[in-house]
Amino acid sequence: MMEQHNNDTFQITTTLSPYDFKGIPLEVGIPMIFITFCSIIISSIVLIYLIRSNKGNFFKWKVIERFSLYTVVCDLLFYTAQTATGIHQGIAKYARITKLACSIYGFLILEFAISQIFLSTVIAIYAFNLVIRNRNLPLGKWDVFLLCPAIGFPLVELTLVAFFGKFSPNPAFCSIKEERGFVTFHFLQVCLVAFLSFAIIIALYLIIWCYIKRQTRVMNESFGQQSAINSRRLAFKLSLFVLVHVIQFGVNAIEGLWISFDEPPMGLRYASIFIGATGGIMNGVVFLMVNK
Q1: Which is nearest to 250 in space by CA: 265, 268, 236?
Q2: Count H helices, E strands: the chain?
Q3: If you average pLDDT over residues 248-275, what whole number do you get?
Q4: Is the pLDDT of residue 18 over 80?
């Protein structure tokens, strides 16, 4: 009787995905590969441009350029892990994805995805200090205050997830084991992190936008239209970072929240992969617009 009760509890609280992946239809897989390839190409172009257009000590580069490089590197590493997972899925009947392999893929995919979330949050705080408080936020030697939270926090969190054996395949790719409820590794690591970053970033950029709008009116009256136009351009560029961040990780957050209640439709799962794959393209477009 006790065994039956435990089994019922497991079925209520856990998403019962089979260990083997579901086959991704060709009409989904081929566009996904194409978009990922485009993101890799654009990210590589941005990376080469950044390296070739800046001379001297890397840590003397502008903060926005260093931030762009960190983001591009995270994009490329994320797509490398995602592509490796996809290739392994394709040959799974010859080389089955083991629990260890799935843990490695899931660890790498989430490490570089969450790193981007932390990078975006830290850069939002930096922009807030720069615009509102009119001072640079010290990033420490070798950008330690930027890189430590961006790389270190997910590294520690995901190491704990791996230690407790919480990586497993979901119907699309390797990730944290999907479980029902809000006190789970999946909700806390995937969903909550994304929503907290949205709240912080959107709040900070709204304050910045309102401040710039008010300053624009003052500048327009005091210094002429050109100064006001420059302020509006700054506000527009800042809003692009928010937009890309919300688009890139918003669907994943919605999917994670849905999983906490019920099994999400495969369309939502595919959408999260599609939009995640466009991250390199969107970041590349934003980079070009900011540096225009």
Answers
A1: 268
A2: 11, 2
A3: 83
A4: no
175 bridge partner residues: 168
Cβ–Cβ < 8 Å for 253, 114: no
Place of tokens 């995905």: 17
This prediction has a pTM of 0.78
In whole angstroms, how far apart are CA 25 and each of 29, 86, 172, 255, 271?
6, 13, 11, 20, 13
- Taking residues 203-211, report their average pLDDT: 83
The candidate with the shortest Cα–Cα distance to 150, out of 185, 187, 125, is 125
Pair of tokens at residue 126? 């930096």
pLDDT value at 278 more than 60:
yes
Q: Which residues pair with 167 in a beta bridge?
A: 176
Other Cβ atoms within 10 Å of 35 Cβ, number: 19
The string of DSSP letters for 58-78 reads GGGS-HHHHHHHHHHHHHHHH
CA angle, 38 as apex, 37 and 39 as ends, to 5°?
90
